[in-house]
Amino acid sequence: MHIAQGLLKKNIVNKLTEAGGIFVFWIADLFAVMNNKMGGDLDNIRLVGSYFTEIWKTVGMNMSNVRFLWCSELINMHSEK
Fold first, then answer.
1. pTM for the whole structure
2. What is the pLDDT of residues 47-72, one digit of tens each?
3. Residue 29 and residue 34: Cα distance in Å, rounded?
4. Distance between CA atoms of 37 and 17, rounded to whole angstroms?
């Protein structure tokens, strides 16, 4: 993670959530698989995504109005119907 993803995103998200909004992160993990990130291993990609969440918590992102949507979960949810 670089500074813009860490500290600057934390500042922006906190301003939005303090104003009453809900911030939704769309995590495009299936697209990372298609682009062979982390060797195309979905478990490794999700692990890295979880690390990002922990970094944002550590630098002070208020998570009370933050939601994470994993592409793989949404697509799997709809494909099971």
1. 0.76
2. 998 998 999 999 999 999 999 999 98
3. 9
4. 31
Cβ atoms 14, 59 nearer than 8 A: no
Query: Domains of the chain: which residue ranges?
Result: 3-79
Q: Alpha-carbon distance 70 to 51, whole Å?
A: 14
**Pair 50, 56: CB distance under 8 Å:** no
Dist. CA 58–CA 49, nearest whole Å: 14
Domain 3-79 -> CATH class: alpha beta
Distances (CA, A) of 46 to 9, 30, 34, 39: 20, 10, 14, 12
